[in-house]
Structure formats: structure tokens, C-alpha cells
Design goal:
Elements: H1 21-39, H2 41-71, H3 81-88, H4 91-97, H5 99-103, H6 105-108, H7 120-123, H8 131-162, H9 165-193, H10 206-232, H11 241-272, H12 275-283, H13 289-308, H14 319-338, H15 351-374, H16 385-388
Helix pairs in contact: 1-2, 1-15, 2-3, 2-9, 2-10, 2-14, 2-15, 3-8, 4-8, 8-9, 9-10, 10-11, 10-14, 11-13, 13-14
Length: about 400
């Protein structure tokens, strides 16, 4: 990964034996998840929700990266933008995968059957925490993510055909509006689907906490995909050290940002010492959940922080293990948020958790590979592409036409 020229890239990997893996994951995971729904419907609901929020992180993290790419008019990220757009465009797939959660909402969220007159915490959150608003908010979230991700990719592909500057302006305008809609809808989704499992709890930082973890894991995944695509050929001539270094730097930044947000949330709640806030952490200090909390402190922050602290580490072999480690840490982090309600005695890795993860992984990988194969692997006519390649193109200076002799310069 640290080579200076594309020609020094290691030879392509033989991935032929892995082509059927997504289909196998879908078949085996789907069958086990289907059987699990009949064995224990509530365990299935929590396992499905955990897997859903895990893979939703990829989709939302990628959408955020595309938005900030256009907002800051970045050039270094042009070569990797296309496959990030494909990940962001998984929003319709996530909407379909949300259907079991919508059907089991009454079992997963006790507040749906509670009386607001006898529940002051629920009454304080009306009209948001009502059954109709749950489905309305969900529809708004998925529609917004689908609209912005699909339109950004549409104009990106249109730019490949025409090379028109108007495509660039369209994407900038979409991103300028989309980043605000993204912030609102991500907050609503994190609150309504995960935080609402314990509706009595109050936290103004929870949505940012989910956002930070999602982007962190997505950046690690983007690094790994970029390396594989460079090694296999599609991005061999366009992805260089610059792209890997900046992705690694952003990963380092979000490692710190996630730790800051999580610690701030804990510190404010601990310092306030209000029962309607502290009970959330008290539950997660019982049994082996205390050990999971320690794993998050050292595994989610200290280990990647120390590994990424060196500048040259961002261009070394250590990045591949970090990417896999990021998946594991994010899964544990989401388990820490979702599962203590169902398993208050401690962490349990249930076979339904693995089944739901396997099924969704197969679906997401299959759709992503199909999208990637159907379009050019990177933007073809982006005006910032030469800058991303480190090529300087001298501007064409057109001399001003001489003014008529009757006019005087002012």
C-alpha cells in the first residue's frame, strides 16, 4: 500500500472462489433468520434491528462522504467517489430490509402500547413518539436518503457522458441542501429506531454518537475497498498514496471524534446524576456489559488511535486489519446499545444475530457489486480529476479584444 507508483501494486488476487459467497450468505442467513422468527420472534426482532442498524451505517456514512466531497469541492476524493456513491445508493435496499422492524415495532418498542397520560417521559415527546409518526418519520428518512443519493449519482453519471460544468453545479447545490436534510433525518432515524428502545432516556448527543461511529466504520471500509479495487485493476491507475493517506487521516480524526462524543455523553449524564438519564448506563454496567464497555474504550478508541498516530501507518499493511477491527468494534458498539434490553444479564452472541448479519451482508454485497459492474469505476470527466492525479494543466489565456478607439479607459 505504501508504494509510490501504480506499477508497484501487488498482483491481482484470485477472487473467483469468492463469487458465490454473497449468494451463500443470503441463502444460509435468510433460512436461519426465517426459522428464528418462528422459534423466538422477539429475539429475531432484536437481532434483525441490530443487523439493520449495522448495515445502515455503511449507507449513511457513504452518503455523508459524498455530500462533503461536493460541499468542499474536494479533488483528492474524485477517484474513489463512484464506489462510495454506490454504497450510499443502498438506501432503497435498507428500506426493504426495514419491513420486519416495521411489522414488529409493537414488540420492540413498549411505548407504542403505553398511555401518554400515565407516562410523563412519553408525554414529553409527543407527537413524535406515536405509532403513526414512527412510520411517517421512517418513510421521510428513507425517501430523503434515496432522493439525495440517487440524484447525486445520476448527475455524476451524467457528467461522465457530457462533461458539462452544469453537472458539477447541480451536485454542489444538492449537497448544500442535502447535508442539512441528512443531519435531521439521521437524528430522527437513530432516535426512533434505536434510542426509542428505552424511550424514557434523554440524550441530546445520541444521534451524533451514532453518526460518528457510522462514518468511522465507513471510512475503514472505503480504505479497504479502494485498496482491493486498485490491486484488482479498476482503480489501478487513478488511486495513489494521496487517496490512502487522506482516508487514513479522516479515519484517525473520526476515531478521536467518536471517543469525544461518547465520553461527553457519559460524563454529562454521570455529572447530572438524574435517574431518568443514569438508568441507561446503570443497565449497561451489569454482568458482562461492563466488560463490553471496557472493550469499547480500549478497542474502539485507544487501539486504533495508537496505531494510526504515526503518519506512515496510514500507508502500511496495518490498515487492512484496522478495517476488519472497525467492523467488529461497531457491531459490539451497536450491541451495547440494542441488546441490554433483551439480555440485561450480559452480552450474548446469539445465532440469530449471526444469521441476520449474514443475510444482510449477502444482500448488500450483491447489490453493490451489481451497481459497480454496471457503471464506470470512477468519474470520467470530473473537472477536478487532473488535480487528483497531481497533473497541472496550464490555463488557456484568451487575450481581451481591443476596445474601439472612441472609448477611453477609466
Amino acid at each position: 500500500m505504501s508504494s509510490h507508483t501504480p506499477s508497484a501494486t501487488p498482483p491481482p488476487l484470485d477472487l473467483s472462489k469468492w463469487q458465490k459467497v454473497p449468494t451463500l450468505l443470503m441463502a444460509i442467513g435468510g433460512l436461519l433468520a426465517f426459522l428464528g422468527a418462528f422459534v423466538n420472534i422477539k429475539q429475531f426482532g432484536y437481532s434483525w434491528l441490530l443487523a439493520f442498524m449495522f448495515f445502515l451505517s455503511f449507507c449513511l456514512g457513504a452518503l455523508f462522504l459524498v455530500l462533503v466531497h461536493h460541499i468542499f469541492d474536494a479533488s483528492w476524493s474524485v477517484p474513489i467517489r463512484r464506489f462510495i456513491e454506490h454504497i450510499a445508493c443502498l438506501a432503497p435496499v435498507m428500506a426493504v430490509l426495514f419491513i420486519p422492524i416495521a411489522l414488529l415495532a409493537g414488540k420492540l418498542y413498549p411505548w407504542m402500547s403505553s398511555d401518554p397520560l400515565h407516562d410523563h417521559a412519553l408525554k414529553a415527546k409527543l407527537p413524535l413518539f406515536t405509532a403513526p409518526m414512527f412510520y411517517i418519520v421512517s418513510a421521510i428518512c428513507f425517501t430523503s436518503w434515496w432522493f439525495f443519493s440517487s440524484r447525486l449519482r445520476y448527475w455524476s453519471l451524467m457528467q461522465d457522458e457530457t462533461g458539462s460544468p452544469e453537472c458539477t453545479f447541480k451536485m454542489r447545490r444538492l449537497a448544500a441542501t442535502g447535508v442539512f436534510v441528512f443531519a435531521i433525518t439521521l437524528s430522527l432515524g437513530a432516535v426512533m429506531w434505536m434510542k426509542a428502545l428505552q424511550h424514557e432516556w434523554f440524550s441530546t448527543m445520541y444521534a451524533v454518537y451514532y453518526f460518528a461511529g457510522s462514518v468511522w466504520m465507513t471510512l475503514a471500509t472505503v480504505y479497504l475497498i479502494a485498496y482491493l479495487l486498485k490491486r484488482q485493476g479498476p482503480l489501478k491507475d487513478v488511486v495513489h498514496e494521496t487517496q490512502f493517506y487522506f482516508i487514513g487521516s479522516l479515519l484517525f480524526a473520526f476515531t478521536v471524534f467518536y471517543a469525544y462524543i461518547h465520553f461527553s455523553q457519559y460524563f454529562i449524564i454521570w455529572n447530572g446524576n438524574m435517574p431518568e438519564e443514569t438508568f441507561w448506563y446503570i443497565l449497561r454496567e451489569k454482568g458482562s456489559w461492563w466488560d463490553i464497555g471496557m472493550i469499547l474504550i480500549f478497542g474502539h478508541f485507544f487501539l486504533p488511535f495508537l496505531l494510526l498516530l504515526r503518519i506512515d501507518a496510514k500507508l502500511s499493511w496495518v490498515m487492512a486489519p484496522i478495517a476488519v477491527w472497525a467492523w467488529l468494534m461497531h457491531f459490539i458498539d451497536l450491541s451495547y446499545n440494542v441488546m441490554p434490553i433483551w439480555h440485561p444479564e450480559g452480552f450474548v452472541l446469539h445465532w440469530m444475530d449471526l444469521a441476520c448479519i449474514a443475510f444482510m451482508a449477502g444482500v448488500v454485497i450483491k447489490v453493490f457489486l451489481k451497481s459497480f459492474a454496471a457503471h464506470p469505476p470512477y468519474p470520467q470527466k470530473d473537472p477536478r480529476f487532473s488535480e487528483a492525479m497531481g497533473v497541472y494543466i496550464a490555463p488557456i489565456i484568451v487575450p481581451l479584444e481591443s476596445k474601439p478607439s472612441g472609448h477611453r479607459a477609466k
